[in-house]
Structures are given as structure tokens and as C-alpha cells.
Task: structure prediction
Amino acid sequence: MSENENTPQTSTENTPADAAAPGGTSRPAEGPTPEELAARGDSRSQRPTNAAFRAFIGSGWDDTVPPPERREVADFTPARRDALVRAVPATRLVLPAGVLKARSNDTDYPFRPDTAYAYYSGLGTDEEPDSVLVVEPSADDPARAEATYFFRPRAGFDSTEFYADATYGELWVGRRPTLEETATRIGIPTRHIDELRDALAKDVGDQLSLVAMPGVDASVEALVAEIRDQNGLPGGDGATREADRFAEVASEQRLVKDGFEVAQMREAVAATIRGFEDVVRHLPEAVAHERGERVIEGTFNAVARREGNAVGYETIAASGHHAGTLHWIRNDGPVREQDLVLIDAGVEIDSLYTADITRTLPVSGRFSTAQRRVYDAVLAASDAAFAAARPGALFRDVHAAAMEVIAATLEELGLLPGTAAESLAPEGQFHRRWMVHGTSHHLGMDVHDCAKARREMYLDAELVPGMVFTIEPGLYFQATDTLVPEEVRGIAVRIEDDVLVTADGVENLSRALPRTAEDVEAWMASLR
Ligand code: GLY
Ligand code: MN
Ligand code: MN
Result:
């Protein structure tokens, strides 16, 4: 809905467009002034602003709502914030939620807050554009964190915001929380966003630095830069280094999930599996539609919206040779009985944790011999990766185990220019022609979680209990690949599971979704 539909058309007096007539503004020889240009966004406004109307629309509302409840996550975020101030000491750390992003002129994309902000605040879903979490060492004990959450609480019924502000107004975006309600829910003291500037500047200097999470909210970063400058803190490279270190720490602290996060991952995976089940039920409809891939995407995404916040990333519904395009998200192709369809999809639940699962399914319900051959090779690579994944192994070992199987398969097919062993050597790597992506990535609130972690904390790090990552080998034989036998051209398979490192191995969180060819066939038959 646009901002100006459905408002009572009783008056046009004092509309912003009228008010903005620029008295005395210097006007270029031709064309509108900047003020005139700015006012054009309101050029359709017919909203009444007279006093009688304002009094009328502000009265007669029932304001009883259920009392707010403290969220379970509020028991976990204090330890996260303590770890943060210990890793980035003597610093006031500023975590913006982010800003609304325009889809086109006055219509925005749904809001999804920044991951670090959500992790340290316990907020999720669409909470809250333009808000800011501030974390700093406690004055009494620098190993403990103090936090304050700044946001724009709801305005009263007597405000113009209530009915006239399409970004914040209650009649536009629904009832917004009060300071007290949010404080109760997340267990963090709250203040009005208008108090942010003074709060950020207080005591900043030699003993206390001030840093904003980079890349989230340019206006907050500019405010922090200004306050740093006014208080003698370095700008330029010095400031960038501090901000990058903050981002690195925030990424690395999420490498090992706490108990709340593991439970959320289980929920995200369970919802995702229900999405895959619905997709299988809708495969006949997909086959019947000329854009069957969209039927699959729409089916999965409906489950994601029904059961969660959204999809955790754009759904890949790739039928036939489209499966060879790793990030096929156009999803506008047909789904044919004789093809495989690769579905890579994840439900992001309201806490923002997402699954990331791929299954490659025979549309007919039965694999052909050639499809089965490729599928079994990928499954063997996955099994090898699972076997290598345990505490003490390196993250990179999981990929290496999968690659040994992939290289051996390709050697058997006669595709490698040499032996599998030669291909596996750093100067070879020819097998990667048919699987150019990695086998694993950390998973959590971001599908590619912890992406700013240092190499020694990620790829070269030992696995420890509580880590969650994917195992997702694949083999992709493009339809245009003249090196591969004709019978497998256009066949691409990926099998992707989400695993939790335990005390002695890994738990496959997505094990309820069948992996072997036989189990996939039986499961599909049971759903049809
Ligand atoms: N869906 C993206 C990935 O598997 O990494
Ligand atoms: Mn995936
Ligand atoms: Mn993945």
C-alpha cells in the first residue's frame, strides 16, 4: 500500500506539499529547486492535518495489551556481551540494527536486522530498524558488560506519528513497543533513540574508545566518527582497524553456539524439513506447470513464511541442467519427470537462525542408472566428510576427506588428466572442475556464518563441540561439458546436511531428511 491511499480526503490544507513552497529559495535558471524535489514525495498527500481531525483520530482507542514476557534468549545474551567486552576491552561498542532499504521510492523491503546486533541483543524478526545496542565494560568490573538499548518507542495516540508516519506510525506499521516493554522482553535497559548522541559521547577519550560495527548503518558510523574526532580518538586507518577487529570478534564469538542457539538450529532444521516434505507433495503440480521450479520455490517459501521469519537465503530450485548453476535462484525453468531437481533451501525462524539443506531428488520418484551413479558418488563423499568431522580434527580436514572421494570417482570415470593422487596435490586440483565450491561453512544466524572470522579460527581451526556447519559435497556435470560421458552430461547433484559437533563426533541435525538413494525413493513414495 502506498502512503497516500485510503486516507480521508476531507482537506488539502497545510499538506507538506503546500507548506514546502520555497519562499526566497534561489532557483536555477531551469528545473526544480532541491526543496521542490524533496517535496515531490508528498505530492500525492491529501492527509488532513486540522486540529479537530487530530483530536478526533487520537481519541477512542482501547489500549489494553497483554503484559510483555521476558524471552528465553535474555538468559543467554549477558554471557555473550561479557565475552565481547573481554575481547574488545576499554571500548564502547555500538551495534546498529540497520536501516530500511527502499525497494522502490517509498516502498521498502521487509526489514531484517544485522546479525551481530541480534546476537548480542536477543532481538529478531523485524526488530527494529534504526535502533542501536550499546555495550561497554562495567565501571565496577571491566570483565562484565553493561548494555543499553536505544530505539524509538511508540508515540501516543495524540501524536501525528500515530496516523501520519508511514515508517513508525501505529496505523501504518502496527503497535510499537514502549521502552518498558522492550526492556522486560530482552532484559536490557532501554532509552529513547534521541538520547543516543549524548550517551555515546559521554566519557569517551583516553580511557574509553568508541567503535561502531562497520557496514550496518552509515549514519551511526558517521556519528561515531564525529564523536571520536571531537574526543581525540584516531580516524582513518586507526579507526578502521578498531572497527574491523570488532567485526572479527563478533564473527568469531559465534563459531561455537550456546544452548539457546543449538535449540534454535534444531527448530530451523525441523521447519526446513517440513518445507522439503511439502515440496515433494507438490512435485506433480511443478511438473504440470511451465515454470515448475517456481512452484517448488513458492511451496518451500510459503512454509518458511508460515513457520518462520523468511527463507534464510534465496531458495535454489534447479531442475535438470540448471542444477549445474550453483546459485540458480531465477527458478523459472520447467521440472521434467525424467530429471533430477536440486533444492537448496532453509527456513530462517523468528530468532533468525537458519538451516541450509540440499536434496537432489528424482522428479519421477526413481533415480535412473546414470543419476544413481552420480548420486552415490556424492553420498560417498558426504559419508567420508561425516567420518572426518569430530573434535580435534581441523575444519579443513572435512573438505579434504570429501575431496578424496570426489577425486577417486572422477578417476574411475576417466575424467582426470592423471591419477586421483596427482589431482589431490596442491598443484593439481583438477577434480575441482566438477565441484568448485567448498564442502563446509559455519551456519547460524547467517547462512554463511562467522564470515569475518580469521582463517586460523575458521579453516585452520580445530573443531570443538558446539560448532554447527554444513557438509555439502556435490558433482556438477554441465550439459555443455564435452569432457564427460554423454550419459551424465546435465546431471548435477549436491547433498547438504547441517551438523553439530558433539563430544565425540558430529550429530547430523538434518538426518530426518533421507540421504541414501533408497531412502529418498521410499520417502518420496510415502509422501505422494
Ligand atoms: N545455500 C548456499 C549454500 O549452500 O552455501
Ligand atoms: Mn545450501
Ligand atoms: Mn551451504
In short: The radius of gyration is 27 Å. Residues 400 and 431 are 12 Å apart (CA to CA).
